[in-house]
Amino acid sequence: MSQTSPTAVAEPLKTRQRFGADVSGLLAAKLFYFVFFASLGPLVSFFNIYLMSQGLTGAQIGWIGSMAPLITLLSNPFWGSLSDRWQIHRQILILCSILTGVATMLLTTAQGFWPLMGLVLLLFFVRTPVPTLVDASVMDTVRRTGGSYGRQRLWGSVGFVLLAYVFARWLVGEDLRPIFWFHAGLIGIGCTLLAFALPIERSPGRVNLVAGLRQMIKQPGYVSFAVALLLAGMGLSAYVNFLSLQMRALGGNEAQVGLAWAINAVLEIPMMFMGARWFARYRYGRLIIIGMIGFAITFAGMALAATPLQFLAVLPLNGISYGIFWVAIVGYAAESAPSGLSATSQGVAAAIQGGIGGGIGALAAGYLWDGLGGSAVFAMAATALALAAVIFWIGNRRWI
Q: What are phi and psi of 87, to 5 degrees?
C-alpha cells in the first residue's frame, strides 16, 4: 500500500498558496498604479499654470522644475538603498505615501517663490521613491510568474487620463487648489492602504550594497545607458514642465490642456498592454532606442506647431513612444540589478533620468522659455533625445 509523504502533499499546496498571493498582489499593484497616477493627472497638467497664476516667471518655474528633480538624485538612491539594505520596502513605501499627502496639503498654504520651492523639494523627496519601490516589487513578481510589467503599469495611464480630463472639464476660473486636495488624498490615504497588499518580499540574506553597485556599473553598456538616460531626462523634463504653458501660449484653453495630457496617456495604454506580446522578440535596448527616436520626432513636431490643433496632432506619437520607452527602461534596469538590489537599481535609473537630467533640462527650458519661447524649448528637447539615442546605440550596439 503506497503512502504519500507529507512533503509531497505540502509542496503543491504551498505552490498554490504562493500563486494566489501573487495574483492578489498584482491586483493590488494595478490599483496602486491607478490611484497614484490618477493623483498626478491634474497636478502635472495644471501645476505650472498654478505657479504662473501665483506670479512666478518662466525662469522661476524653470528653477523649481530643475531643483525638484535634482532632489530625486538623492531621494531615489537614499530610499532605495535603505529599503534594500534593511529589507523594509513596505514600511518605506507607507511612510513616503503618508508624507506625500502632508507635503501636498502644505503646498496650498505657500505663497511666493521660496516657500513654494521649499515645499516642492520636500514633496519630491518623499514622493519620488513611491512608484520606484512599486516598480521593483512588480518586476520581481512578474519575472517569477511570467507575467507582464506593462499590463500592471498601464492602469496608471488609465488613472492619469481619467483624472486629467475630468479636471480639465471641471476646473473653471483661477482656483486650482482642488488639484492639491485630490493629490494629497489619493496618495496619502489610498496608496498608503494599498501598500499593505502589494507583493513585496524580503530577499534572503544581507545585501552587500557597495559590491552590488560596483557590479552593476561595470556591466557592458551600462555607462552609455546612464548617459543616454541623463539626456533623455533633459528632453522629457522640458516637455513635462512646459507642455501646458505652450498650449496656453498657442491659444489653447484648460480643456485643451487636459486633452493634451489625456491623448499622451491614452496611447500609452495599448503599448503597455500589448507590449509583452508585440515586443517579446526584441531586446530592451532596441526598444529604448525606438522610444527615444519617437520622442525626438514628437518634440520636433511640437517645436514647429503654430496652433493648439497642430500641437495636439503630434501628441499620439509621444504616447506610443512613452509606452515603449518606459517598459523598456524598467526592464533594462531590472536586468542590470544584482541580487537583492532591485529597488536600488530602479532608484539609480530614476535618479539619473529624473534627477540629473530632469534638473538640467527644466532649468535650461525655463531660460529658453523666457528668452526664445516655447518652440526653442521643444527644439532643445528633440535634440537631447536624438543625441541620447545615438549614445545608447554606441554603447549597446553589440547587444541590440
A: 55, 50
Burial status of residue 169 (CB atoms within 10 A of its CB: 0-12, 13-18, 19 or more): exposed
For the stretch 328-356, pLDDT in tens is 998 888 888 877 777 778 888 888 898 88
| One-character DSSP codes across 106-136 | HHTT--SHHHHHHHHHHHHHHHTHHHHHHHH
Query: What share of the chain has pLDDT > 70, as a percent?
Result: 89
Distance between CA atoms of 325 and 267, rounded to whole angstroms? 13
> Which residue from 376, 354, 347 is spatially nearest to 67, judged by alpha carbons?
354
Rounded to an integer, what distance in angstroms lies between the CA atom of residue 279 and that of residue 324?
9
pTM, full prediction: 0.78
Say if domain 19-200+208-399 classifies as CATH 3.30.470.10: no
The pLDDT assigned to 228 comes to 97
Q: What are phi and psi of 123, to 5 degrees?
A: -60, -45
CA 211 from centre of chain: 27
- What amino acid is encoded at 230 in this protein? L
Domain boundaries of the chain, sorted by first residue: 19-200+208-399
Residue pLDDT, tens place only, 162-195: 887 777 777 655 678 899 999 999 999 999 999 9
